[in-house]
Design goal:
The protein has four helices and two strands. With 69 residues, the protein is mainly alpha-helical.
């Protein structure tokens, strides 16, 4: 079982009524990159996680979800 931490970006974007396009424009990255983050096929670096938390006005810890075995 893959028990690596996953991000909750997709859920938080929905809760905050924001889109992948909005986030990609704020971070100056491609929408495809944000899509990969939302599906957890890749992860942003720690600096970008921090910026995302700031943009969404949530604690950084809220972006990460750990799965127990």
């Amino acid at each position: 079982m893959d028990n690596k931490p996953k991000n909750r970006l997709k859920l938080l974007l929905v809760e905050k009524h924001r889109t992948n396009k909005w986030l990609s424009e704020c971070l100056n990255v491609n929408q495809t990159t944000v899509s990969k983050w939302c599906t957890n096929s890749s992860q942003p670096d720690i600096f970008t996680f921090s910026k995302i938390a700031e943009l969404l006005n949530v604690p950084m810890e809220e972006l990460i979800q750990e799965y127990a075995e």
